[in-house]
Amino acid sequence: MRNVLWIGCGVLMGICACCGQVRADLALETESARLLPQGRWEFSGAFEFQTSSDGKEAATPLAIAVGLMDRMELLVEPVPYTKIAPSDEAAAIGVGDTEVTLQYLLINEKGNIPAIAIAGEIKIPTARSTVIGSREWDYRIYAIASKRIGPVDVHFNVGFNIIGQPAGVQTRNPWDASLGAEWFVHPKFDIIGEVTYIASALRSEDPNAAVTPEIAGEEIVYSAGARYHVNKSWDVFGTFSYDNQDAKLFRAGFSFKF
After folding, report:
1. What distance lies between CA 80 and its chain's CA centroid?
2. Which residue of 104, 156, 157, 248 has the fewest C-beta atoms within 10 A of its own C-beta?
3. Residue 159 and residue 146: Cα distance in Å, rounded?
4. Cβ neighbours of residue 166 under 8 Å, at least 6 residues apart?
5. pLDDT confidence tier of residue 31, bands split at 50, 70 and 90
6. Which pairing describes strands 248-257 and 175-186: parallel, antiparallel, or unpaired?
7. Which among 27, 32, 21, 239 has a CA at the least distance from the CA of 151?
8. Cα torsion 6, 12, 14, 16: sign
9. Backbone phi, then psi, for 111, in 5-degree steps?
C-alpha cells in the first residue's frame, strides 16, 4: 500500500510540474505552512456527501482560523451536522467531533528551503453518537512543509496520531502522510489535488471492529478539484475524492478571509 501512496504522489507532482499563493482551506486535507498574519481571520465552510458499499454519509464541516502571532495560528474545526447511514443499520444524525489545532512556523521559505511548521491537534469528542464519533479524545502531532515551484504550491504533511480507545475496541497509534498541490492556473482559478495516507488504527484484524471513522483500517485517499477566487476575500471550491475502500466523496464549499 505504501508503494501505491508514493506512486500516487509522484503522479500528482508530475501533473503539477507539467501543467497566487494561498493557504490550504477545507478544499484540502493537507495543511499549509502559509500561516495567517497576526490579527487576520479565515472562515471556511463546506457540504460533503460520501457514498460507499457500507452506506452513505453527509456532513457540514467548518474551519475558523486566526493568526495569533506572526508565526502562530489557531485553527478550530467543528462539524455542526453529520449524518451517517450504514447500509445495515439505522442512520445516526448529530454534531460531529471538534478539532483544535495550534500551528507554529519554524522556518520561512528561502531559496531551496521550504517553509516548515509544526502543529499539535486535539480532537474533542463532541459527537454523542458512537456511530459518528468514538467519544474518546484523540491527539495528533505533525510537521508541515510548503514549497513554491513556479505556479505550483506544494504541501507535505507527516503526523503521528494517539487514538483514544473505546470500551471493547483495541486501537493502535498510526502514522499519516499527505501531499497536496495548488496550481495557480489564472489569477481567478486554481486546480488542486492531493494524496493522503493513514495507517490502520485497529489493533484487531476483524473488519467489524471499526466502529467510527477515526477508528478504521488503512486508508489511501486521492482528491482533485478546483477553486475560484470571487474576489480578494471570497473563494469557492469543489472537490472529488476516491479511496482504497471504493468510497466516493463530493465536497463543495467557500472560504472568507478578513
Report:
1. 17
2. 248
3. 15
4. 130, 134, 135, 136, 211, 212, 215
5. very high
6. unpaired
7. 21
8. negative
9. 60, -120
The letter for the amino acid at 148 is R
| Per-chain mean pLDDT for the chain | 89
Within 10 A of 51 (CB to CB), how many other CB atoms are there? 15
pLDDT in tens, 49-107: 999 998 999 999 999 999 999 999 999 999 999 999 998 888 999 999 999 999 999 99
Cα distances from 86 to residues 50, 53, 205, 211, 228, in angstroms, run 11, 9, 20, 11, 34
Check: CB of residue 36 under 8 Å from CB of residue 42: yes
Does residue 14 register a pLDDT over 90? no
Max intra-chain CA distance, the chain: 55
* Neighbour count for residue 208 (Cβ, 10 Å): 6
* pLDDT tens profile 226-255: 999 999 999 999 999 999 999 999 999 999
| Dihedral of the alpha carbons of 188, 190, 159, 138, in degrees to the nearest 10 | 60
- Rounded CA separation 30/239 (Å): 13
3-state secondary structure the chain: CHHHHHHHHHHHHHHHHHCCCCCCCCCCCCCCCCCCCCCCEEEEEEEEEEEECCEEEEECCEEEEEEEECCEEEEEECCCCEEEEECCCCCEEECCCEEEEEEEEEECCECCECEEEEEEEEEECCCCCCCCCCCCCEEEEEEEEEEEECCEEEEEEEEEEECCCCCCCCECCCEEEEEEEEEEEECCEEEEEEEEEECCCECCCCHHHCCECCECCCEEEEEEEEEEECCCCEEEEEEEEEECCCCEEEEEEEEEEC
In this structure, the chain runs to a length of: 258
Provide the 10 A C-beta neighbour count for residue 7. Answer: 11
